[in-house]
Amino acid sequence: MYLDCTPEQQALREELRAYFARLVTPEYQAELAGTEGGGPLYLKTVRQLGADGWLGIGWPREYGGQGRTPIEQFIFFDEAARAGIMLPTLTINAVAPAIMEHGTAAQKARFLPAILRGECHFAIGYTEPSSGTDLASLRTRAARDGDAWVINGAKLFTSQAEFADYIWLAARTDPEAPKHKGISMFVVPTSAPGYKITPIWTMG
Q1: Which of 20, 99, 175, 196 keeps 20 to 30 A from 76, CA to CA?
Q2: CA quadruple 32, 34, 36, 41: dihedral, nearest 10
């Protein structure tokens, strides 16, 4: 069986390739060469993608997206990678859909438009020093303190945390529950008291 893009999908690919060619100027490439892919250039580029309406290519129209298919969304990711553009994939493809599905009206109004504009960035707080993405073994705890939560723990290899406005963080809220239960998700501002990030310099 031979699989290929439809004419509409191929037209989208050509549109995106031309768009990224205009975005990635020689000046952009020179600035990118002096970075490790992140920093001010990354944030500026994401805001531009948001302003041009591309970040929500696969989002439902009701949330301001284009309502495109997964294949069309993949074409966007593919062409961005081809052009050397780093995307906030975790934010637009993991956090945002979770908020769409499970968030309150207030949370949707607060976060989704800002993500779509490229002005709100998340990092994923799952992996810990003593456990990988096996959340049943996580040790970070969250306990009620009046109307607030106090979270204690450490996360590891939290990609793009240095650029994040929030951490999408998993913490154990019921230590008596079975290990694969009693876990809650928190949106933790990186400006919160007690939050600290320590870089881990690696190769590759």
Answers
A1: 99
A2: -40
Q: Which helix (H) or strand (E) holds 10?
A: helix 7-23
Q: Which domains are delineated in the chain?
A: 7-117 (1.10.540.10), 122-189 (2.40.110.10)
- Model-wide pTM > 0.70: yes
Q: Residues 86-138: pLDDT tens digits?
A: 999 999 999 999 999 999 999 999 999 999 999 999 999 999 998 877 888 89
Q: What's the pLDDT tens digit per position in 49-87?
A: 999 999 999 999 999 999 999 999 999 999 999 999 999
> Which residue is listed with tokens 């000046």?
27
Pair of tokens at residue 65: 């997206």
Measured CA to CA in angstroms, residue 183 lies from 3, 140, 145, 170 at distances of: 42, 10, 17, 7
Q: Which residue has the higher pLDDT, 33 or 187?
A: 187
Say whether 76 sits in a helix, a strand or coil.
Answer: helix
Buried b (16+ CB within 10 A) or exposed e, 87-112: bbebbbeebbeebbeebeeeeeeebb
Residues 6 or more apart whose CB falls under 8 angstroms from that of 197 comprise 158, 161, 162, 190
- Judge whether 119 and 110 are in contact, CB under 8 Å: no
Q: Kindly tell me the number of DSSP H helices and DSSP E strands found in the chain.
A: 7, 5
What mean pLDDT, rounded, does the chain reach?
92
